[in-house]
# Entry
Amino acid sequence: MKVAVLDIKGKDTGRKAELSDQVYGIEPNNHAVYLDVKQYLAHQRQGTHKAKERAEIAGSTRKIKKQKGTGTARAGSIKSPIFRGGGRIFGPRPKDYTQKLNKNLKRLARKSALTLKSREKSILVVEDFDFDAPKTKDFVAVLKSLGLESKKSLFVLGDSNKGVYLSSRNLAHSEVITSSELSTYKILNAKSLVLLESALEGIELNLNK
# Structure
């Protein structure tokens, strides 16, 4: 599949980029996509939630009232969960939310996500660019030229580019990553996927191992 290569002003350069059918034209596997996105979201959880239970509460251990004759339920500890300030019953404990997926399934999920974006015609190929100095307004100008100023976009670079990354960091609806950082979640979370020419080879190399 061939796609026109644009410059940062949104104009056709007259060149075509070849997108491999093995990456951008497969039969999507929705279950693989689901598993990969589920793993990504699970890994965003720190798992440090913790509530103190009865044995961990600091408080007196004396019996707070006599056993009989009060007309109310018996109570032996101020740390009981039924009292304010007492321990929590079955409270949350630290947990590891990481999940394991094999590499082939993750590659299949990313290929499926790229294929879905290709079918939606949401992939743009742009020639490599850089800025003299990190400036948000320069990156905003690129977004406007490409018609992406009001859309959630993901820019994929071949190699890390500090100028482009810093210029986009303040924008809530745009993200800049390298081809090695590409994930199924980030592909699907963006309305438009902007691939720089230098990223194409890296993407295909990573997904065809």
About this structure: The first helix runs from residue 21 to 24. The mean pLDDT is 93. The radius of gyration is 27 Å. Residues 47-96 form one domain.
